[in-house]
Design goal:
Blueprint: E1 10-12, E2 15-17, E3 21-23, H1 40-48, E4 55-62, H2 75-80, H3 90-105, E5 109-115, E6 141-142, E7 167-168, H4 174-191, E8 195-199, H5 205-210, H6 225-243, E9 248-252, H7 276-287, E10 294-298, E11 333-336, H8 341-349, E12 355-358, H9 360-364, H10 368-374, E13 378-379, H11 401-406, E14 411-412
Parallel strand pairs: 3-12, 4-5, 5-8, 6-7, 8-9, 9-10, 10-11, 11-12
Antiparallel strand pairs: 1-2, 13-14
Helix pairs in contact: 1-3, 3-4, 4-6, 6-7
The protein binds flavin mononucleotide (FMN).
Length: about 425
């Protein structure tokens, strides 16, 4: 045991961890453009961030061509041509096996985050080589045939392409969605992953079923809370059947804060419900019936996490908003969204969470657990290289505090980026 609760060991389902500093799932759009398989650069990136007994969650890994967004919404992706990875072909699985082996070689653990993007999967995938031999019905599908809202007022994601309405999944087709998840889970197991995480958050397929703005069905998958949560629970059952007990995690994201005001009235890709609290509470309570590894919750303040400079990022200084889910869920709870080394430790001390997933700080600090252990300054991330591009901003961040400093990277003291966790309703710390 140490004074810093982030450094204490913890058992998470079937996984034994040496510390509680988790690498959050982060899409980096650098998989092979043609095969959507991980590349050697992807292996290097994950290997650099592995630590003994530390948990890494991969970027969203797509379960099928139908569930794969081709991120042409971003100009730099159009220019650079990287892609998001999948895990339904042998080539993709073999690429992931390299990643897993590299992380295991450093005694780390790695979870594969599985995603079907639903209506966010753009029709272009139908023209992509990896979809050519697919008998999946393309283009995208969702709970109901409702297109993503145009523009960025709703999504804050700068969507600038016309949005083709998705096809509503037929009731009789739902078993096929579960079968696609099962196939991907088998591939992930085969690749050697320690566990898988169901990405049921952030406005993608499962979230589209949970919420009313995207789910206007009148069958057993729409309407009541039970019905809107049905696909979530069916997919979890499917995944546990493949992976076994304690080897499946779930991610949910109730609400999103407006980045300017901090009010919980923004949305992930236009997904919302007037009974959001009721549906997410129902979902979280229902998770107690499963032998999960963990539940990962995205704190709504992450809506403020879009600033280029961490010093002006409100998301690091807003209160936690999901503490009440602790009383609803009996298992291991992981929090993500706007944590700093100091506020993460406080969140664990206060028993808000058992583990903390760090996103952006892990991008620019491959050795984040060590930096936290020693209280070292953090290397500041470059938001411009988050999505797509070369190895710049991907595998070239120095792997120690000293080398980052020597190389002239911009550094920030941990106390300068959010030192205390304000209580609900309390005014956030002022920027320095
Ligand atoms: C570049 C980037 C890509 C992301 N991609 C994913 C993803 O694929 N799956 C997911 O569940 N969350 C994704 N997220 C959200 C992160 O998991 C995390 O919740 C978010 O970064 C907030 O944590 P932070 O404040 O520590 O950065 C992404 C975040 C970033 C910055």
């Amino acid at each position: 045991m140490t004074d810093n609760p982030l450094l204490n060991p913890v058992t998470v389902g079937a996984l034994t961890l040496r510390h509680r500093i988790v690498m959050a799932p982060m899409t980096r759009i650098r998989a092979d453009r043609d095969t959507l398989a991980p590349t050697t650069d992807n292996t290097t990136y994950y290997s650099q961030r592995a630590s003994e007994g530390g948990l890494i969650i991969t970027e969203a890994v797509h379960i099928s061509p139908e569930g794969t967004p081709i991120w042409t919404i971003y100009q730099n992706v159009r220019d650079d041509g990287g892609q998001v990875p999948g895990i339904w072909t042998d080539t993709q699985r073999d690429g992931w096996r390299e990643v897993v082996n590299a992380v295991h070689a450093r005694k780390g653990l790695i979870v594969c985050q599985l995603l079907h993007a639903g209506r966010i999967a753009q029709p272009e995938i139908g023209d992509h080589p990896v979809a050519a031999n697919s008998d999946l019905p393309l283009p995208s599908v969702s709970a109901s045939a409702i297109a993503l809202p145009q523009g960025d007022e709703d999504s804050h994601y700068g969507w600038d392409q016309p949005n083709t309405p998705p096809r509503a999944l037929a009731t009789a087709e739902m078993h096929r969605i579960c079968a696609d998840y099962a196939h991907a889970a088998h591939m992930a197991k085969d690749a050697g992953f320690d566990a898988i995480e169901l990405h049921a958050a952030h406005g993608y397929l499962i979230d589209q079923f949970l919420n009313k703005s995207t789910n206007q069905r009148d069958d057993m998958y729409g309407g009541s809370l039970e019905n809107r949560c049905r696909l979530l629970f069916e997919v979890i059952t499917t995944l546990i059947d493949v992976m076994g007990k304690g080897r499946v995690g779930v991610r949910l994201s109730p609400y999103l804060n407006d980045p300017e005001t901090g009010a919980p009235n923004a949305t992930y890709f236009g997904v919302q419900s007037d009974d959001a609290e009721a549906v997410y509470s129902h979902a979280v309570r229902g998770l107690n019936d499963f032998d999960l590894a963990y539940l990962l919750l995205t704190e709504p303040r992450v809506g403020g996490g879009l600033a280029t400079d961490p010093k002006s990022d409100q998301g690091f200084r807003h209160p936690l908003a999901l503490r009440h889910y602790r009383t609803l869920y009996n298992g291991m709870l992981m929090g993500a969204g706007g944590f700093t080394p100091l506020t993460a430790a406080t969140a664990i001390t206060q028993n808000a969470y058992d583990l903390i997933a760090f996103g952006r700080w892990f991008i620019s600090n491959p050795d984040l657990p060590d930096r936290i252990r020693h209280g070292h300054d953090l290397t500041v991330y470059d938001r411009a290289t988050f999505y797509s591009g070369s190895t710049a901003g991907y595998t070239d961040y120095p792997e120690s505090h000293d080398s980052a400093k020597a190389a002239g990277y911009r550094m920030i003291a941990v106390a300068d980026v959010g030192a205390s966790l304000p209580k609900a309703g309390q005014t956030p710390e002022k920027f320095k």
